[in-house]
C-alpha cells in the first residue's frame, strides 16, 4: 500500500505551520518553508503571493460561500434565518479542527496577522449586508442583522476551537443563534 | 468682547484636519500642522505622540465610559439593557457631528487608519465582554451580547454621521437597539 503523500501545496502549508510554531511567523523565511517542504527554491511563490496570503487564501471563498447561502435562503426566511443558512454553509468547510487551532495560534502570535483577520471579518460583514439588501431588506435592518450574524460567526469559531471542544461548528453556530434570540428577547 | 480662541491643542487638531482634507493624511507632515496652527516647531509632540494618536486619542476614554456604564447599570437590567446604558453614555460624548463627519472622511481615506479603527472596535468588544462577565453573565452570552452591542454602536455611528441626519446619537442608538430586538424575534 502506498502511503498518501500531500502535494507540494499541502506540504508547503504544513511546513509553514510547523516553522511558525517553532520560530514565529515573522522569523520564518520563504526559503526555510521551501526547504522544510522538500521542494526546490522559490516553489512557494508558484502557489502563494506571500506568507500572509497563504494564511488568508481561503477568505474570499468563505465570503462567497456565505453570500451565496444568503442569496439561496428561502424567500420566507427572516433576515436572521438567512444569516443562519450562511453559518450552516460555514459549518461545511470549518471541519479540520486541528488545522484551525494551529492557524489561530499563529495569527494570535503576530499583530499584523490579527489586523488582517479583523479586515477579513469587516469585509465579511459588508458582504453579508449587501447580500441581505439584495433580498429586499432595508437599512438599518440589513447592517444590524449582518453584524449580529458576524458576531455569532466569530463567537462560534472561538467556541469551536476552544480546548476540549468536540462539537461541530454548525452545531455550535445553531445554538449561539438561538442564544442571541434569547438575549434580545424583552423580559 | 474678546473672540474665543482655541488653545494650542485645539488649534493643532483643527489645523491637522484641514490639512488632511486638503493634502491627504499621509502627505501631511507634523511640521506643516505646527505651521498652520501658528505654534512653534514641534509643539505638536507636546500634545500627541504622532498623527494617528491625535485621531484616536479619545478611544481609551470612550471605552472606559462604556465599561463604567455597563458596571453601573441596575442589577435588574438584562445584558442587552446594560449595553444600552453604555450606548446612552456614548450619546453624551458623540455630540459634535461636524467633527465626527470630518474625522471619518480622513479615516476612510487611509488604509492604516481604517485598520486602527477596526482594532479600536475589537478592543471595545473585548472590554464590553469583560464588563458583562463582571456582572455575572456567563459565556457565550457575554460575548454575544457585547458583539451585538458593538454592531449597534457602529451602525448607529454610521447612521448618525450620514448626510442629512440631524437626530442625536443616543436617539438613533435607542431605536437601533429596538430594531435589533425586532430582527431577532422569532416569527
List the main descriptive attributes of the protein structure presented here:
elongated, 187 residues, homodimer, mainly alpha, 0% strand
Describe the structure.
Two copies of one chain form a homodimer. The first copy, chain A, is mainly α. The first copy, chain A, has helices at residues 8-23, 30-37, 44-47, 51-56, 59-72, 79-93, 97-108, 111-134, 141-161, 169-184. In chain A, helix 5 crosses helix 6. The longest helix of chain A is centred in the middle third of the chain and has 24 residues, at 111-134. Chain A is elongated and about 55 Å long. The termini of chain A are far apart. The model of chain A has no long low-confidence stretch (mean pLDDT 93). At the A-B interface, helix 8, helix 9 and helix 10 of A face helix 8, helix 9 and helix 10 of B.
In short:
The structure is a homodimer of 187-residue chains. Chain A is built from 10 helices and no strands.
Layout of helices and strands:
2 copies of one chain form a homodimer.
Chain A: H1 8-23, H2 30-37, H3 44-47, H4 51-56, H5 59-72, H6 79-93, H7 97-108, H8 111-134, H9 141-161, H10 169-184
Helix pairs in contact in A: 1-2, 5-6, 5-8, 6-9, 6-10, 8-9, 9-10
